[in-house]
Amino acid sequence: MLMRLAGGRMMDPAHGIDGQVRDVYVRDGRIIDPPADAAAAQTLDVSGRIVMAGAIDLHTHIGGGKVNLARLLLPEDHRQACDPRTALTRSSCGHATPGTLATGYRYAEMGYTACFEPAMLPINARQTHLELGDTPIVDKGCYALLGNDDFFLRMLAAGQPQSRINDYVAWVLDCTHSIAIKVVNPGGISAFKFNQRSLDVDEEHAYYRVTPRRVLHALTRAVHELGVPHGLHVHGCNLGVPGNVDTTLATIGAAEGLPIHLTHVQFHSYGTEGDRKFSSAAGRIAEAINANPNVSADVGQIMFGQTVTASGDSMAQFRNADVGSPRKSVIMDIECDAGCGVVPFRYRDQSFVNALQWAIGLEIFLSVRDPWRIFLTTDHPNGAPFTTYPHLIRLLADRAFRNEMFEKINPDARAASILGSLTREYSLYEIAIMTRAGPARTLGLADRGHLGAGAAADIVVYRDDPDRERMFRTPEYVFKDGQMILRDGRLVAVTRGSVHAVKPEYDRSIEAEVAEYFERYQTTSADGFRIDRDELCECGSELIVHACREARR
Amino acid sequence: MLASQTGSQQRSAAAIVCTCPFCGLLCDDVGVSASDGGTVSVSARGCELSRAGFARQSAAGQDSARVGGSAATFEQAVEAAAKILREAVQPLIGGLATDVAGMRAAVELADRCGAVVDHAGSTAKFRNLLAFQDRGAITTTLAEVRNRADLLVVVGTDVISRFPRFFERIAAPGGTLFGLKDKDRRSIFLGARPPPDAPGRTDWIACGQPELPDVLGALGALVAGVRLDAQHAGSVPLERLRELSNAMQAARYGVLVWAAADLNFPHAELSVQAIQRTLAALSRTTRFSGVPLGGSEADLTADAVLLWQVGCPFRTSFATGRPEYDPYLFDARRLLARREADALTWISTLSDLPPPEDLEAPLILLAGPNAAAADRADVYFPVATPGLDHAGHLVRTDKVLTMRLVATRPSERASCARVLRAICQELP
Asked: For residue A553, what pLDDT is reported?
């Protein structure tokens, strides 16, 4: 079937199209050039509307062990937000950590068509894929978490060659069908198992005698040399600790110019100035991002209200457990692979610290100049649930509204922030970069995030409402792979998304080494670690493999 | 070594290595072989539970569905089951001993017909869950225990009756990652007598089950540095608990092991809470984590699927068109005893868990081919066993590993998922 979206104002930054009126043609789930039989197209008049590609969330904790632990920990969270059963959709609930069904529906309702789970423990990959397989409509992908697993740390401590480390990294990507590599508190999760309570970039791991800098260096190189499109995804040391700006700047240094992505950088942009020894270092961080083209970041904006933090960073989460609300937490060491920590948080606008965290996030958004290298996230659910994105977009796009909100926060935090003096307002074009074209480009999704011929027809049509929150909360139409799934803010079809992955080449002899290691030390076989493609289908998703850049050995 | 693992069409006698589904450890190194008649026997690394499980579930028995005690076609049985569910005001789906695919279908069916869902083993599981939802947990997983644990404190269980290969699985005869030797470990049993394969130097602090709440309370107080004037906790001299507390504080990587199913006394959740309080106090200075043992009869699997799909654990009702979780109201036993449920769908694919006696409500039974309750079921589907008749997934005791099950013999038997999906299709 041929479809034409006629007369819309297109926002397609990948092709430099900024609001020009263009028709979009769709056939067999793909966007095509105007065809010879254009007259035969079924036409949908979208004149006066804004047309964008489907949005892509490149950092959202939507599946896997720690998310399910958060669901289990907080029955109170589920009573707040329920999606009742309808003729089309199933029932599901949860505010901060909704069930997978509600997660898929709610993302689609906001015009999101792809979501990336950024902290999949390789040993937990099977459960993660099962959960993602039960997350309807949106496409998914996973970043495999490395850098605290004993196999890797042993390699590093033994001085194994970089090429061998690369083989291991590629083997993990392959077995777990991941699209990128993430490191969380490099070496620190492992160090916590040896009762170390903090680990800065140049401190040594008590057992392996390696530093986070070396972990970062080896993994950054591996990702780069394998040609994985997305640079190493880094959750640095000292999350949430006042003064961690220096750690973050050292982390950028450790990349030595290779591509690196600083995730939820808001939580890593804290200084120690002022009476309370807690201050904004957003300026220094933004300056460093502006000055280093190899660096990208997502913000991890916090929003006021109840949420829950779920992280692989057991060391930081143990430290934070006493300030959680309600006061309960889960701390776990996991299978010589990594760990996790779940701590509920209630961010309050009258708390000095929380209010300043809120302002720091916005300062970063407004101070990083290149929208292709900064991405819109709340580190769902850690800063806030993803359902707050439309509100966040309005804060970025509407200075008057932002300043109105700024007036309401804790006055000491207000005095400590330059937010009120920042005049920038994000344009729709910049928002389209930050939520579509940018994530697609950094992840290597050649056929997503844009509206050119050959792209998957993941398309969103918005009314051009000056209230950007209302605009982005309720699209007029959403298409997924060419099929209309939402009309006038209501779902009209429920589809099944795919899983995006990359498969760099590697030397298969690494498998024998890993198998022997598993046999000796783990409690399962390396054979069972691999998820084969048929099994991935059983989990509920089809696999789409994207090209890597040319490997650099 | 494992090359034949994925073959579902294995001929007789060729041994394959598979994951055993018959307890929460889900050992993935069990050798089995199928006879021409379809009987599967364990040929390597078996235990009592695996040998009994494979033999029981692969024995010949009922092949066709039954309606009202008489043989019926699959379609007739599906229609009869759908009719019961259509007419029910408050259906209940219980048992829930099935794999991920079976549970996915069960949740969809529950949503469709407004059922309550609860697992056969939920009484034990709630001992952990209520404490978890109140204050959280500090836990660790099997490979960490194997490589790091220098002290195991085992509370209220001998472990091996329910998890026969636990100590074998955490033993590291070839050495651990960090130089710890098996002989350097220490295990202290509080309650049950230590089994012969308990690791390292073994101590036993004997006490009866009913004393455990007092003993765990006192231990927690000692670890937290509270002065106690008592001389005994239950029948245990405080001095012995003081030694235990000192040993725990001196451990570098201690673990406290318990099996909720063995904490068989009223309000055992308060004892689990005392355990978690103790672990939190120890964690201020050293590393000490819990190892709650469970996962048998797929209780953690059923819970995980329900949680991830709809956000709630079991004892959830879909009666109002949205999931509502309530550990008291939606207890299957309570609902049946008070006649608040008027149709029971009972799922038991891994053993022959008996549905509650004295049912007034009609019974739809999905169980193995020799189910004892077949005669009293209004509709009976002899269903397949995951990990025997078909591939599937189950969640291991530590909730981290989801293990891949393979078919270990050729089988035509319908899976639980297939039956439930067929019923679901017949509902409005």
From this structure: 57
